[in-house]
Design a protein that fits this description.
Order of helices and strands: HEHEHEEHEHEHH
Strand content: 5-15%
Mean pLDDT: 88
Number of strands: 6
Radius of gyration: 17 Å
Structural class: alpha/beta
Number of helices: 7
Amino acid sequence: MDMLRKKRVIIVLAVVLLIVVLLWKQPWEQKKVPTMAQNGPVLIIDAGHGGADGGASTAGGVLEADLNLSISLKLDALAHLYGRDTVLTRETQEINYPSEANTIAKQKVYDQKTRVGLINQYPNGVLVSVHQNYYPDSRPSGAQVLYGHTPESEVFGKLLHVNLVAALDPSNRRVAAPIDDNIYLMRNAQCTAVLVECGFLSNPGEAKLLCDDNYQNQISVILLASYLEYLNSGAA
């Protein structure tokens, strides 16, 4: 990252953090004003997993789905403070499945198809899918961004990854990478799309951070600042 860009990112982060501090004691949910804008850029926030699919978990039993939703709601609230239109693929842990989705496998398929249908209503959308990583070995750590199949997705994904590393852990040696084609939601999303692995729930130290409200605030700030930087870059 060149010096000018570093300064720009720092300024954006500082401004967003100032707003967070000023509104610190107010519940995040009270600042949400859901919109369904059809024109102009819209930030599509996907809290990964949910409902019957809890995803991975920490050693203490905290579900990935809960952490994903918490970060996503914070990102949504911040985006509205900046007057940005957002769409959430889910806002609660509960998912209403049809009666025919009577197994976990069928419920997952229904959920993913429903999310893709919503996402593809917004051709000008920018999708940020929030997830947590897991590995059998407890040593791996660090955030990583995986980007979709469009050129714009790669631009946004690499920008976001650089910002996450710079702000959260400069020692992180992971790199942004194209996502595996077997990820249904990312494969079928027609807009600019990135999937953010915020960290490893299998790493005790990082899991503790990811469960911390302040750290989640930091992640949401970086996600929003990177989204704004991407829009301002003209690549969107």
